[in-house]
Design brief:
It is built from 4 helices and no strands. It is mainly α and 85 residues long.
Length: 85
């Protein structure tokens, strides 16, 4: 039997799991409480997304995987990220 999403805290050992959970919870709350009711605020959850994205980028870079994903066009760096290399 599968558990409902968000029904229990993440047990992941990923270094970004808490940030992922924060973004997921914010997005889910925005989607269910606002978007489906016709309220749209494009500024919603941006802080959570940016923190999660930065964590992912850092850990992908540590494992030298970011270049592999870029080569496969899975990840596209922001222009600010690309110029800092």
């Amino acid at each position: 039997m599968r558990e409902k999403r968000g029904s229990k805290p993440s047990t992941s050992t990923s270094p970004c799991s808490l940030l992922r959970d924060a973004y997921h919870n914010c997005f889910h709350r925005w989607y269910t409480e606002k978007f489906v009711k016709g309220q749209y605020d494009k500024e919603e959850c941006i802080s959570e997304w940016q923190k999660y994205k930065a964590c992912l980028s850092e850990h992908l870079e540590d494992k030298h995987m970011i270049r592999l994903l870029e080569a496969e066009n899975v990840v596209v760096r922001d222009s600010a990220d690309a110029t800092s290399q």
